[in-house]
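seq as requested:
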Amino acid sequence: MRRYARTVAALALATSVVTGTAGWVSGDAQQAVTGPPPGSASWRADRTLGTELPDPERSTPAEVAAFFAGLGDRERQLLLVRHPSVVGNLDGAPLELRYRANALTLAASDDPRYRSLAAPGRQILAFDPRGRGQVAEVFGELRPARRVSVVVPGSDNDAGTFDRKAAAHGAPPGMARTLHTAAGPGTAVIAWAGYTTPVGVGVDAATGRLAEAGAGRLERFTEGLIADGLPEPAVFCHSYGSVVCGLAAHRLPATDLVVLGSPGMRADDVDALRTRARVWAAKAPDDWIDDVPSVRFAGLGHGADPTDPAFGARRIPAYDTQGHAGYFAPGTESLRVFASIARGASAEGAVR
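struct tokens:
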């Protein structure tokens, strides 16, 4: 009887995630964008260099990096001009080549949603216009950086909303920009809106379907950074982005996993993540995510609260953080600790 009561209670709580009784709103079901980048069929058929090009879907980032390392400047430029949408999204390709490729793709786009992304000086490391659009932008100088961070956002983020002004510190570029400014010289931060996120907070946000697809893309993206000679990153995961990071954790090359405003990581505790990264968690006192039930039942909900001491994550103070989108606001204790982690501070030195 006691087990039955717990099951009924869990089902009621999980259902509240979907129906909105915990303060959530409905969202539209999304189709995850997966697979190789646009233009891959033409890339695969290209024999201009007298050899097969690495398959964008099957070749590992390390294999892609080795291929480009064997090319001369003229050959690289030829592939860039012929296949910008592939080169710009090919994990393991040299970042300088990816910047130029994505600039070409964006300059040729007539979609008004992406016009601001084509502005001179922006360092767009990935751009896929399919679906609602996916994008990654670099803040700071990535090649010489001693420490690299990746910011993984949650719901309602895509290439079309990437530059929205209403959420200066809650939108991906704002989070990455403020983190880079606080972390200082020798660091670079990537805003990675590289997966299909939920819209609103309904069934998609209450299940792991989109997060599972996003986890694979995040793993490959970070592997591509390392294959290109960059250091292992610290990964900062906001809201539903922490579900993505939780599912990716066991294969994600990272020094640190930092979750903030998390509904859960689909794991009971840090050990269940099977990661060698340090795991950190932050939650603001008035973050509405605290009203989301910390359960996982029948595919709904994301499990334990990472800020619960029993979860085992290192707790980041967020007593002066306001709401669900305020973790990167300048002057907050949460941003101060994030910056310490981004600089590679020791576990003892990051939290006072």
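The longest helix spans residues 209-227.
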